[in-house]
Amino acid sequence: MGSLDMANWMTNLPAEFTAKPLLNLIIPGSHDSFTFSLDKDGPIANSEPAWMQNIDWLPGFKGIVYRWSVTQKYTTTEQLDNGVRYFDFRLSRPDNEDTIKVVHGFYGSEIGPILADMVAWLQQHPREVVFFDFNHFYNFDSDTHKMLTDALIGMLGPKMCPARRPRDVNLNQMWQSGYQVLAFYDDDESVADHPQLWPDDQMQSPWANTDTPKQLVAYLQDQLMKRPLGDNATFFNTQGILTPQTSDVLLHFYSSLEAYLATPTTQRLVYWLRDFLPFLKPRFNIVFCDFVDKFDFCRTVVQLNFSSKRCY
C-alpha cells in the first residue's frame, strides 16, 4: 500500500478491503481513550473506592493516583489523525453535578467537548469510520443515560449506523449511507430505546487482568483462537494492556503506569504483532493499547491488513 496516510487510512483502502465486513478489518484503538484530559488538581473520582476518596488530602497521594491513571497522551484529534478508530468511553456523573465526565481515577473532560471534537474531525474525513465503546458508567441513573444518549444522538445521530448483524456492515455500505459511527452501549434500556445504539455483547473485549507480559500474550493468543468467525461473529477487541495490581502501585508509587507497565507492554505488543503467527491474522479485529503514541503502534496495526507474515 506504500506510505500510509494515517488520518485517511480507511478512505484509501483498496476495494477488496472496503467490501470486507468491518469485523474482518484490523483496526487500532486506545484504552481509556480520554485520560489525557484528567484533572489532577480535582477530587478523586466516584469510580474509586471510598477510602481513596477520603484520603485524597494526604500530601502526594493525588500525584500517585494521577501517575497510575493516565493511559493516553494524545488528544482526541491527535488520536484520530494518527489512525485510532476505536475509542474506549468510561464516564461518570460527579456527585452533586449535572454533568457527565470522563473518569479514571480523576475526572476529565466533559463529554460535550469530546463529541464536538469527533464531529468536527469526522466532517473533515467523511470516509473514516469510528467505534465508540461506552462500557463503564459510574453514578448513572436513567436520567443520566438519557442526558448522554440525547447528546450523542443529537450531535452524531445522522452519522450513527443502526445496530444490525455485525457481518453485514462494511465500509462501502457505511459510505453509501453516510454513516461514520458504530456506538456500543452497555445499558439494555438505552439500547432498546435507540436503534442507533449497538448492544454491548456485539463488541467482545476479553480482559486478561494480569500484570505479567508473558501471561498477557498467552491470554491474547488463546482468546483470538476462541473467537467465533461464523455468520454470528461479533466485533472483537484484543486488549493489549497490563493491569496494575495493588502491589505494583505500592512498590513503585514513585513511578507511573506509563513508565513501569505501559511502555514496555506496548513495545512488546508491537513486536508480537509484527511477528504474529499467520494463522492468527484472520482472527484480529480491533487491537488497543495504552499510549498509542509509542512504537508506531497504530501504523503497525493498520499494516497487518496487508501483511501475510510480518509487518514493519
UniProtKB/TrEMBL annotation:
GO MF terms here are: phosphoric diester hydrolase activity
- Family matches, as Gene3D superfamilies: Phosphatidylinositol (PI) phosphodiesterase (3.20.20.190)
**According to the UniProt entry, where is the signal peptide?**
none
- The lineage's top-level taxon is Eukaryota
Q: Which BP terms does GO give this entry?
A: lipid metabolic process
Q: What is this protein called?
A: Phosphatidylinositol-specific phospholipase C X domain-containing protein
Which species does the entry assign this protein to?
Answer: Plectus sambesii
